[in-house]
Amino acid sequence: MTDKSGVELPESEPNFSKTDAVRSAIGQATHSYAPIQLSRYVTTVANSGTCYDLTLIDQVKDVNGNVILDNHAKVRNTVNIANSTWKAVHNGMYRVVNGSRSSIGSMFSGMKVKIAGKTGTAQQSKLHANHAYFVSYAPYKNPEISVTCVIPNGFTSSNAAQTARDVYKYYFSKNKKKVSGKIKMPESIQRIRINLSYEEWRRSMSELVAMKGTKSGIVIVLNEEAAFEELKQAVSEKFKESAAFWGEATKAVSFQGKKLSDDEKMQLVDCIQENCHLLIPCIMEEDEALETAFQNSIENRQEEIDYSTGQFFKGNLRSGQVLDVETSIIIIGDVKAGAKVVSKGNVIILGSLKGNVYAGSSGNTNAFVVALDMDPVQIRIADTIARSPDKPRKKKEKETKIAFWEDGNIYIEPLDKDVMGIFDCNFVIFHEKSGFPYRFLVQYNLRDCVSIRA
Which pTM does this prediction carry? Predict the structure, then answer.
């Protein structure tokens, strides 16, 4: 990345960013490369570390047809890193194009070969639309070619990806024909003039998506004729601009106008949460009493979140320590004698329980306590308390048990499939990583505990 590609044509000097290490590491800061230099880079990635000086010349012949130069690309250097690192990079590029949550996967469906790639945009200034990038190689398992597409002021990387897709279609087709005439623009920018000013482009984005905030939800009206990729870009822009207005509110959303599949709706929700701090508990369908439906949905979903949403705590709680949380909690460690855990939801201890536990502290009798080794001094669920017997019990083999409330009593039983028939729930961990505009959801199915032993 620090010198020219070697191709026998004039090319600009690359600029390898040497300031602002964090931004430089993710491709921002002062990096500047010609497309041919990016092409050499992605070719090196595709073959796991061999970097070539690129060339356009295969052979040089004299006037009589005699070969006077049989040319080959020369190896510039090799990049020696662990095979596991190369595999991780290759797999990531594969999933960008083929993953279940890929934003460009639909463009490449039906292709004869599997393609690996990476999308990107480069920002120049507020007076210019973003430059669109897509670097790639194919076939994924045995690469033959790499394709790098850069569209100056191309708005979104999906436009570059569509263009690269057409190159692959042609290259891997059985009946190649010479192409002449005008090239058709990617679908998502056919309605946009390339010479739009930045402000005109922003206005065109606003015409694609309209938003109306209500007390409990957001109605998002989508242009029915716009391509989905175009709508994604517009939704991202809208919520990025209004992030400060929405704050960390909890809002249901409803999509109107363009008909969307469930997967497309989820992709738009992802776009929203990647560009602001909104918590979206559900997607509402169109309804005559939309405001009432929003409010009911928020309240119902909030009850579920209060009960099943929680945090992780890693470490042992020792005598005298108290862990008091507003949500459910998974403790990766032991609760020693003299320690106490208080939770408004459930308590799951991936270790031994020798101290005190208070689950459902807000009065929730549906709360439960699970431990890999259950030997507490006291367990309380809602307003019901159970204490361990005064006489010491005989030591038994450690066994995963669950404590739950039923008919005014607390029962402690082995966690097996019969007991699990009582509980029909998933324990959902909600964790917001400070400083990042998105949230992580981790599904934790309680039935997985059945096979756990200390």
Answer: 0.45
